[in-house]
Design brief:
CATH class: Alpha Beta
CATH topology: Aminoglycoside 3'-phosphotransferase, Chain: A, domain 2
Strand content: 5-15%
Helix content: 40-55%
Oligomer: single chain
Largest sheet: 2 strands, antiparallel
Number of helices: 4
């Protein structure tokens, strides 16, 4: 099923690591307390791939940030990412279907990496 969906998706250049540590922000105007994205750094993971992959990864990063801060419900935070993304690019029905699967997959991988990196003595979990 996923292979059939991939043939319907749009390819583009992805940053590959779009998260809070790689985003430069600045005030909307000199008097504002609201901020906007003004740049990106860390282009080591750039690639040509499907746009929906970048969206899924970014939503997962937001969810993890919400879990750390405890200020925003993680699902609300990731929904904000999707809503903001849709202001700039249409998300197709196929991408939404695939996003549900990918979102869970990426989130589990991120949690696994976090657990393994903070518990290096548990390297038996890798095998």
């Amino acid at each position: 099923m996923i292979i059939l969906i991939l043939t319907k998706l749009n390819l583009g250049i992805l940053h590959g690591d779009f998260n809070e540590q790689n985003i430069l922000v600045g005030p909307i105007n000199p008097e504002s307390t609201e901020y906007k994205i003004v740049g990106l750094i860390d282009f080591g993971d750039m690639q040509v791939s499907f746009y929906v992959f970048e969206l899924a990864i970014t939503m997962c990063y937001m969810m993890l940030e919400c879990l750390k801060s405890k200020d925003i419900d993680p699902f609300v935070g990731s929904a904000h990412v999707l809503m903001a993304y849709r202001k700039h690019r249409k998300v197709s029905r196929e991408e939404i279907r695939l996003l549900r699967v990918m979102y869970n997959e990426y989130l589990l991988k991120m949690i696994q990496v976090t657990v393994l990196s903070t518990n290096a003595h548990l390297d038996y979990l890798i095998s």
